[in-house]
Fold each of these.
Amino acid sequence: MNAIEIRGLTKSFRGMYALDDLNMTVPQGAIYGFIGENGSGKSTTEKCICGHLVPDKGKITLFGKPYTDAGVRARVGALIENAGCFPASSVYANLMMQAINLGLKDRAGEIGRVLKIVRMEDNAKLQFKKCSLGMKQRIGIAMALLGDPALLILDEPINGLDTDGMRLMREILVDITKNYGCTVLISSHILGELEKIATHYGIIRQGKMIREIAASEMDSRSQVYVSLKTGDMGLAFELLRSVGCKVQFAEEGLRVYDVEDTGSLAAYLMRSGQQIGEMKKHRIGLEEYYVSLMSGREAM
Amino acid sequence: MENAKTLQFEKPSFFTRLKGMLGVDFYRLFHTPLYFIFLAIAAIIPALVSMGAMGEGETAGMFTNAWQIIAADSPLYIISNMGEYANMNMVFIFGGIMVSIFIGHDYRSGYVKQLFTTHAKKEDYMISKTLVSAFSMVCMCFTYLIGGMIAGAATGLPFAINAGSFLCAILGKVIMSLGWASLYTFINIIFRRKFGISIALCFVLGTGIPVIGAAALVGNSVALNIFLYGSSVYACLSANFLSVLVCLACSLAWAVVYNVLGSVLLYRRDVY
């Protein structure tokens, strides 16, 4: 079953289309990395799923039920733009309000559990407004985690976090999907971080979904290439082409694609009198894939 | 997916949903100073009102009975002096300000997103806010009553009263809290984060200016009881059981109207 299925979602603001016939499929149990430029419609999509925005048209189903179903929506946790907490209240009071809202029975126990997940057990009494940005993001996650959510929607949760904070957030997200069976829809600009955890990707541009791909599929399709610098780049280019290598000039020097044995490549060039200045093996990752899609040429 | 599990979604009943939403609102109400500040304000207003009765100048002698601090002698929609105006109805003015701040903070803090994410049925929000606001205003009515009795005693005015009429007057005003609360909730649903506008509008409507203006045109007509301010005035020291029924009908009717309109608005409009 799919956790989220969106068909033909359209949303406009004063005649400007933020979402234009958007389709999206998030499988249950996935960590779905939602990628796109600023203003591409990521947050609008997430807000529509959470019922914050009223779509012009289109269909949204969550776990096979309409997104307006009270039972499904009671199991959705969200962190969109900010944690949505009362600044003058303590972290604990804010979590308590959400626990009451969700009708949880063992509220104190649940609060303790989510605070432990986000590593905030020692800061429960702190006033929300006195928390750092990273702490606020983690509190937002804790709010979203209350009450065993089946679906988590996180809008830029790693924005503004330092390296440690990002690592912690990554661990939290992997932990909740593995141990709690939660589906996560996460939007982020930090593709390197997303690449480490996402099982699926959706790439959105100007309100349209331009590609949905599983991380495993991307891995199997991703190209490996070797970048190298030699004494005579022109001659090296010709030499490699003459033996059937897929080679091209790039910013960093030459790129040789689909090389399995870098040692043989180096040996061949040296035998041909080329001095190798630099040689490095690469795999085309999410960032390059995304850039190539955005520029209209697909890398894989 | 490997870690996908079979999920079951229980559909919460209306009462379960409302219990959750009401729980949050009451928790917030009792854990923030706002509510207690307004209770104190409601208790202090009668003291300020009675100062006019005790002092000298234009307002001196505007009361002849201590209970007039709490309700007017008769249902006069056209105001000729402050004594006929300054009574427990002022709770509804300050109640409007309190409700605006209370709901406005929901929107400003962003907490409303949490509520609407987990509550697909948007009428839950409208009903819960109306009930909590009505509760606050009822409490304000009672602190006003206590403050009014103390202030009345301080003026040295007589406390002679028909107990039945007095009870009907108090009951009528308490019942009107529901109608006023639904109006203020509706206004705040319209203006959301711009609670400055909500406060101003609640203040204007709470003072009864539109009804007082209408009374100036049509005279002291009982037809004005169809309005919240009209029925609030109708709950006076000469009230009877019929007055209570009028208040009940007016308050309930407007509560239904504003709750339906508010819910429709919430369904049709973006949350923020």
Amino acid sequence: MEFSLAELNAVSKSYANTPVIKGVDFSVRAGEIHALLGGNGAGKSTLMKILAGLVPASGGQVRIGGQPLSPATPAQAQAMGLYLVPQEAHIFPNQSVLENVCVGLPKSAAEYRTRITDLIAQLGVSLSVDVKAATLEIADRQIVEILRGLVRDAKVLILDEPTSALTPVEVDTLFTRMRGLRNSGHGLVFISHKLHELRAVSDRITVLRDGYVVHSADMADSADADILSAMSPGVTTLSARAGDKQGHADKAAVLTLQNMSGEGFVDISFDVKQGEVLGLTGVVGAGRTELAETLVGLRPRAAGNVTLDSVSFRAKSPFEAIKKGVVHLSEDRQQYGLFLEAPLFWNTSSLVYDRLPFFLRTRYERKRFDTYRTALGIKCESPDQHVGSLSGGNQQKVLLSKCLAAEPKVLILDEPTRGVDVGARNDIYSIIEQLAENGTSVILISSDFDEVVRLSDRIVVMAGGHLAGELPSGASTDEIAQLAFEAEETAHA
Amino acid sequence: MLEWIARDRVATLFMVTVGVILAVGAASPGFLSLGTASIVWSNGLVLMLVALGIFPVILTRNIDVSGGSVLGLSAVTLGLSVNAGFAMPIAIAMAMGAGIAAGALNGFLVAVLGAPSIVATLGTLGLFRGAMLIATGGEWIEGLPENLKALGARSFAGLSVMGVVTASIIILLWVFLRSRRGRWFMVVGDNREAARHLGLPVKRIEFLAFVWAGAAASVAGITFASQIGFVPNQAGTGIELRAIAALVLGGVSLLGGVGSVAGVVIGVIFFTSIDTSLVFLKIPAYWNDLIGGAMLLTVLLIDGRLRIALEARDRAARYRRGEQGGPDLKNAEDAA
């Protein structure tokens, strides 16, 4: 038995008499990367928060470096050599990167400056320590979190979905760095929904379901099918592409963009046909989100023409866009999508409030929600529940219900499966397919090339704000990657 | 120049203040003198102390509206104890003790019991004022001894003892906020959850901010009593709102995490110098509030507009660079 850097023995946790963790054993050894997998709501995050002292356990024992974690506070866990890199980077927007990394350390920030610039260089990223953290991109915010762990000399690093906001290239860099840490005797816990990522770096895997450990073995001994069936019985793989769909070439274009330019993109032209799923892909920073936001009037349009059903289309605000039938689902569901503390049925009605009667009739709104609840398979207790209490996948479905309630002609989905588990991802895929079948045009923005290939009838690739190329249905991820990355190199040359 | 304004609202405010003072000096000769500066400083002491007290509370993204009542409570404690024959140092210690206890109650309500700070301090605003009125039976406290009044009188180089004390408090707070632990007050307001994740004692920090506010308000109460020589039962009423206005004017964000001691000082001096200017310009005192309010709005609007313009410029610049294949792509490329 190798030495465990951190372990949980028969740990359990209940919230208001609802048990969420039920007697879980878990350990991280020196020099290993331990993958932790589970559906949304399986208890992964809670388990890791218990290990990091953020949430007290209701029962069982937490040990770090052989010593019991007491008192169970984050400060104590960090002092004992464990750092949790949370899924959403926790940054102080008004402080410099340096201050962000050094808050809570025993000496003042200035004394760590050289150490941190060295670490940044080792990580192979370019990041100035003096910029205000508010200006950082999501990927750089993750780097700040990882730096926090490294500068604290943490022997155990827990990475909670570190790759969900990263591009494939950045993911590779992160993996190299993780292997480096493993080889220098660190223990890492790696949480991700993407099985191929887990397989690429992990030594052991533990699968959680409903608060129990349902699978725990060496990675090499675990077949994909075993892992998937342990995680969500009944799902053995991501459902395959539903045959080859009929071509849309003969259909009329619903939305046409001509030489559109704006913040972060120039000279973009493409069209979407009726009932078509158009994959819009590229790496983070390629200008896809900016393009979508410009279309619905969130950002100013610098140049170009857009026609919707052969009529010139220009939305001054998302409200106007919705009225004309163009609905946009933001990539940041917590910040721009959901009203987290409002009941579910409010969220579903939130894009169509102007169509509701003067005196609200909540009975109809609840009924509307119930229709979508069955259609989309939203798992919840009642329409009056707060959205914040649902898991990520179900939150995303509530967002979709909100968009569908507005009866869009063109639906723009920005990263609809970010942070969503395999089961819910399958559901969302079939919802998108269903929509397209019923004649809605869907623009699917995604950085996950597999997802784009899986769903799209046509693929448009953007790189560095330019249109890099268009690929037909069935193109391979390699072809996409080539377009998405090569255009960048030429831009630099 | 524009960059300077972009970084700091303090810069805008500083220029407006200098502009206003020069304009008043041009209209009313004799205004621009060291004597006036000394008057402005001593007139602003009470507001300054209350503002310096509330400042760390706002940095932690809470608010304290009970400052005026704590001021009154401390002034009354001081007045009653000196008139009861306690020695001056003991009376001052008791007044500060009252302020610190009041601050600790606020801190307990917010940090320990988790009451929203606006609710908690609105409650204690009435509570402390009531305690003060019951203590005096609604009477004014008069006939304070000369050695107390001496603390507020301008003695050496145009400064009073309380003036020097206040200046030291300003320096103390400035130094503290630049220290490692001082930074904690700013980061708690910037992102409370992040501070908790990094193991900061968030609740203790919030509690201490309220205690500090109580202590500063009690020093303001002592200053108030020493300057006017008696304690009326409405002592300090409404001063917390003026202090908050001065803080906002000085660039302190009500959303927490942003602000500087220099901004607080200039914000308070701006308000006080307007009041003093009106005396020199022979404008009746009942115009003070209207003019003060109008100036506040003007500065905030100009500053807001400038900031929007600068942000638009920075944003445009960022996207122009992006079109040339600039920094947005740099990370991916370095990684490759």
